[in-house]
Specification:
CATH architecture of the largest domain: Sandwich
Strand content: 35-45%
Number of domains: 2
Largest sheet: 6 strands, antiparallel
Structural class: mainly beta
Length: about 325
């Protein structure tokens, strides 16, 4: 069982199979990474499945036969975040109340049960969990440009770079006061780039150089203002170049909140290396903000919803 926070110990328990019914006892201690700090109402742990530790042929295509329970068979609330039987990938979040947050606590996973009816219940899974903990467990703050803020950031603080294509130029790149009614700092890119030339502000989303899967991405959310044409891209880069998935976004002179979902991205058309979300979602390396035909770009509070910090280690 691939578990968040269990390192190389992928079998954090034991398993039993009877015909098509399977069960595995899991250790809570192996499930919670150091950054998952339980509150008094409990916490939510993440189980990651792949072909090396879960036999998807013994489960239903949508995971509706899964059951999570205490050792006394009391059902535990959980939600299925992703279940792809063909790709042999799954992700489940399970509610761990205070009775399970004791050293040595264990619970049981069962699957392959007959006549299954899905028990995935996001509302019950998160009921009573503090909002700040929900945010920490279900999103990654890429950057809010405030020095010293390490709350739900990437495993290491992101490094931003700016560059321009031939016949375009970066005139300024800094992190000044956000202004225009926003407190704190923001990224500010000043540029000169007539279409089809462009300027780019970009940061890597991977810490070890290995592309990461973002297939659990719900949305990318950020605040932006500026002028000109504007695109946002998820890149798969090798030696500075490679395919991407992107979409254009309207810019305004006032701060505007933008929410981008995978289904909002352009379909694959080959333009600018665009191969669509399905083409890059399992091998993302960088996040890029691209502009032309204007003068400046302001960016603040960039957050990924869906992944957690372990997805980008």
């Amino acid at each position: 069982m691939g578990l968040s926070g269990c390192g190389s110990d992928k079998l954090a328990g034991n398993s039993v199979e009877t015909e098509n019914i399977s069960a595995r006892v899991l250790s809570v201690d192996s499930l919670l990474p150091s950054w998952n700090h339980p509150d008094t109402g409990g916490t939510v742990g993440t189980l990651r499945f792949d072909a090396s530790d879960f036999d998807f042929s013994h489960s239903t295509p949508d995971g509706r036969d899964l059951r999570l329970e205490r050792l006394d068979s009391t059902l535990l609330p959980f939600e299925i975040v992703e279940w792809d039987q063909t790709a042999r990938l799954g992700r489940v979040r399970v509610r761990l109340d205070s009775s399970l947050l004791q050293p040595g606590a264990r619970f049981r996973l069962r699957w392959g049960l007959p006549n299954p009816k899905t028990l995935s219940n996001p509302a019950a899974t998160w009921e009573g969990i503090d909002d700040s903990l929900v945010l920490a467990l279900t999103s990654v703050l890429v950057d809010d440009f405030r020095i010293g803020n390490d709350t739900t950031l990437l495993p290491t603080h992101p490094v931003w770079n700016a560059y321009a294509s031939d016949s375009a130029s970066v005139l300024g790149f800094a992190f000044p006061a956000a202004g225009a009614g926003f407190a704190g700092m923001a990224l500010h890119l000043q540029y000169q780039a007539a279409a089809p030339r462009y300027a780019v502000a970009t940061t890597t989303l991977v810490q070890s150089g290995v592309p990461r899967s973002l297939r659990v991405l719900d949305s990318l959310v950020f605040w932006v203002r500026g002028s000109g044409n504007f695109w946002v891209a998820f890149d798969h880069l090798t030696n500075g170049s490679g395919p991407k998935a992107w979409m254009s976004v309207s810019l305004d002179s006032v701060w505007t909140r933008v929410r981008m979902r995978p289904q909002d991205l352009d379909t694959a058309d080959g333009v600018g290396g665009n191969i669509g979300w399905d083409g890059v979602r399992d091998s993302v390396t960088d996040l890029a903000f691209i502009v032309n035909s204007g003068g400046d770009l302001w960016l603040d509070s960039v957050r990924l919803y869906g992944p957690d910090r372990d997805d980008l280690k």
